[in-house]
């Protein structure tokens, strides 16, 4: 079992253009190591970096108190922070789009307290302390603070969708926004992280309506950041669920190859790393070895940590996965694919994997998705089918491609292709 | 929000042969890195390393089929594996004790299918496919396999306790067994890991009796390794919950000091690392920075991964925590303790921390706990109050001590004291 590191410099960081995406462009590790670890999509939430002290007027308890006053119609509190509300429908955040220097650029559809109240007035959803979920706070300078809230408006029906559509807002799949996000644009990267955090929290609320111990109804506490069973005999406190997943690039050191696999649900030609959920009673390193063996029959020796990424775009019953990325060194090379889990798994040479990275035109996919969001918000297209975005067909088709830089798999694979992995591993062997 | 760890007053004590613990003894990293990472308590479960293929006779589906036949009285199946059952009561596994070379040595209280059936005959607990939980399988050589099951017998009442007591078995707190475990004894370490895995699964079953989505009753599937809502309109599949916790040794590189903290529930004189649960929407590295800031006001820069450990000895509502250990390098040094979370936090010199490690007599604590298990199993002592074990008073009292090597905190702190940490960090800085 081995260990290693990650180097995110102090949090607030966002990322970095695809054209600037260092893994894809610069082979120098010195550059990579810095930018690289700053780059995980959904990390770097600018309003979640710090939980404010409970005495701050923008902290969860203080904001909840202000919210209660607002709901009672007492709108003129001293030191009252500004409230912004992000609605979600079926796990999709409200988004808008603007064109900046001729390129569309999505943004989250924040509503003011009053606007949100007006939109929901004749719907099934109440704007109340039982529906609003505290997302965080941010300074607007000069001592002015904004408190951000999320709300699930799925029950509000299609009327609301039309009404918001009139304002050129649209509920957009988070995966579409993920692909559409311009990595050069720090603000967009921050908004993607906020949307991911909000989706996780709101889907968790849906998944934890009832107490697992007694079946009682759970109620919101701590401004929606926690829940509690309303049954007086139980009163169990419920915390948001975060499901750790190990994801590993299995490496055949001797023959300079990496193991890539396909699941049947992948789009055509896409190959990626192995991954799997933790079981209770095992370490991360044990999970890497167990999953690799179960899915491919390969024995893994040394396991080297790479980095971690929140992953809020899984199924709604798993609202927040935590991807923990590793390099795993194979001790045996024969592949015995578990066909219940994988469609295929193969060793690939460094050269082939490099091609798969180079040919995949992530930037083009980003523009396509961004254009789609723009059209949706303008009411041109309401349906969403993203699989076409992946089929970036510019002339010759590459035999395979790997997930874009929004996925930790891309970072693991790029690090191997560019020699970062071997530097990491040899540092440890020398110790 | 604050976080747990091992060391509550009520909790058990500490362990292990100080003289044999490689971090404390050998300064060569080459030795350390191997022994050290093998040594996390609760990892290395010998029957959980691999999930057998579903076609194997000792796999969960095959074993479940055999179990159903056994319950119907068809005991003579071809290729039928041997079944061993471990009962738990209020989260405590059944244990026995033997004396080997004059030292007591605990072991898990595995019962045969027939014995367990006999013990439970007149109780409130049925031995059935709805109460038995598959724990794993192991080879006994010559093609003979054993399948291990866990069962919660809390509802069976005190009669069962007396009956088992007559056989010199006793339900012992897992924390007591953790401290009592002899780290030289691979079999005991393996049994501790099995007990931890079993406790996590059984407590999760208690915590997930009802579906969070609809309040319906959940039923066991996959031989108790998963659950599913019995409501035909819902049918949500439920996976065991694993709650990731970051634990970090914050280091002041310039002044060669480390930050240790105390929670009010710690036993006197004990200091440890900071720790905290993940929130949805953040990476592990972000959680390290957020928690450190929230609890102490210290800004953290670089974050370096160390290792991970399953931690099944928290409260029953959090049946499986996953401790993920990091070194965190301070960018600011002023401490502003959050008194809601911590009693105190202070910078300590390497020399002082070294003393705290040396003086704590983990081996003595291990012997004391082991002797206590022995007495309990012989019926000498039924109650458990382990707090006295902490006050290992051999002459002069040390000003402080740190948790024993069963806790990842000890490994983080030892690695820093012995210079392993600086080697890790500098390797990465050179990249």
Automatic annotation (TrEMBL), chains A, B:
InterPro entries hit by this protein: NAD-cap_RNA_hydrolase_NudC (IPR050241), NADH_PPase-like_N (IPR015375), NudC-like_C (IPR049734), Nudix_hydrolase (IPR020476), NUDIX_hydrolase-like_dom_sf (IPR015797), NUDIX_hydrolase_CS (IPR020084), NUDIX_hydrolase_dom (IPR000086)
Catalytic activity: a 5'-end NAD(+)-phospho-ribonucleoside in mRNA + H2O = a 5'-end phospho-adenosine-phospho-ribonucleoside in mRNA + beta-nicotinamide D-ribonucleotide + 2 H(+)
All copies of domain Nudix hydrolase, residue ranges: 240-370
Assigned EC number: 3.6.1.22
Pfam families for this protein: NUDIX, NUDIX-like
Coiled coil: none
Cofactor: Mg(2+); Zn(2+)
Signal peptide range: none
The entry's keywords: Hydrolase, Magnesium, Metal-binding, NAD
Single Gene Ontology MF annotation: hydrolase activity
Similarity comment text for this entry: Belongs to the Nudix hydrolase family. NudC subfamily.
Descriptive protein name: NAD(+) diphosphatase
Species whose genome carries this gene: Solanum pennellii (Tomato)
Gene field: LOC107023591
